[in-house]
Amino acid sequence: AGVGLASAFAQAWSIDHPNEYIGLIPCAEGGSAISEWQPGSVLMRHALSEARFAQETSEIIGILWHQGESDCNHDLYQVYQSQLKNVIAHVRKELDLPHVLFIIVGLDHLTHAEGFSRTLTQHAEINHILQTMPQQVPDTYFVTSKGLTMNPDGIHFNAQSLRRFGLRYY
């Protein structure tokens, strides 16, 4: 789409906090499974390294979590909940931020998906786990992706939906 949800999120935050600065720490890895984010993994070590560097001069107040599509097959949903809880607990412990907000996005946009996303046959199970995480883990919040439009590839959101998505995260 050529745009990301981060700019819409940052712009909305900046309007509400005109005397403060916002910094975003991009650590996403497209197509990654939750197993690739477990403690000790390359992705987790990299994310924690970037976050610790930011903590030298800044305060981390939240984490935007958009992951799960790669776990929508092969019964991976059966371990997804425990692995996501493990990720949240590990990040909070390692950064000494026991109450940092985790804003988790759902996969409800896949209900009527086309293209590649049609192969993600267990998206409803993963989405249910994501949706119920706030009832199980304190300081987590769920953001729906319902009503957002995918590009024809069935993998990525279109530009307008990415902007709307960023506002939903906020």
Automatic annotation (TrEMBL):
Keyword hit for Metal-binding: no
Domain Sialate O-acetylesterase: 2-169
UniProt xrefs under Pfam families: SASA
Sorted UniProt keywords: Hydrolase
Keyword Electron transport carried by entry: no
Listed Gene3D superfamilies: SGNH hydrolase (3.40.50.1110)
GO MF annotation list: hydrolase activity
InterPro entries named in the record: Carb_Esterase_6 (IPR052940), SASA (IPR005181), SGNH_hydro_sf (IPR036514)
PANTHER family: 9-O-ACETYL-N-ACETYLNEURAMINIC ACID DEACETYLASE-RELATED (PTHR31988:SF19), ESTERASE, PUTATIVE (DUF303)-RELATED (PTHR31988)
Protein name according to UniProt: Acetylxylan esterase
UniProt source species: Staphylococcus nepalensis
